[in-house]
Amino acid sequence: MNLKINKHRNGFSLVETIFSLLIISIAVSLIGFTFQQMRKNNLNQQQESEIFRYLDLIESKQFAFKSLMIKNNQLFLYSQTEQKSYIVSRYKDQIKMKTADGGYMPLILHVEDANWKIDQNHVISTIKLRGHTYEFTSNLTTKR
């Protein structure tokens, strides 16, 4: 019997295949982690942007707001330039500003809790977003 052993093999061995799959799984895991971090950073930036938009609006010189009162955890503001009343309140999971005429503008989304206090010429806003509590003090004179 004449058997020829072919020393030239075709294909991959089992060890080479497992090693290749290990490298691919590590790469996919790193890509998934990177996208998760990017999404988290994007949500944080969006949250900061909404907070600054809220603060810019209630402290804006364009409206020149004066605080009227807080009733039923709603902040009542009066715009001296527009001579119009506004209400800032939490509705479901957002903080919105509305007028007596109707219509509203959402200011901050994904709100877990929100409270307002008036202390002399300051409005103190306490807002809880995604497990973090933020407290802001805005200088708004009280309308008499």
Give the N-terminus to C-terminus distance in angstroms: 114 Å
Approximate strand percentage: 35-45%
Overall pLDDT level: 88
Number of helices: 1
Largest pleated sheet? 5 strands, antiparallel
Task: Note the run of SSEs as H and E.
Answer: HEEEEEEEE
What is the structural class?
Answer: alpha+beta
Protein name: Competence protein ComGF
Organism: Fructilactobacillus sanfranciscensis (strain TMW 1.1304)
Keywords: Competence, Membrane, Transmembrane, Transmembrane helix
GO cellular component, one term: cell surface
Describe this structure in words.
It is a single chain. The protein contains one helix and eight strands. The protein has one domain. With 144 residues, the chain is α+β, with helices and mostly antiparallel strands. The N and C termini lie far apart (114 Å). It has a five-stranded antiparallel sheet with strand order 1-2-3-4-5, with helices on one face. Strands 6-7-8 form a three-stranded antiparallel sheet, covered by helices on one side. One of its GO terms (biological process) is establishment of competence for transformation. This is Competence protein ComGF. One of its GO terms (cellular component) is cell surface.
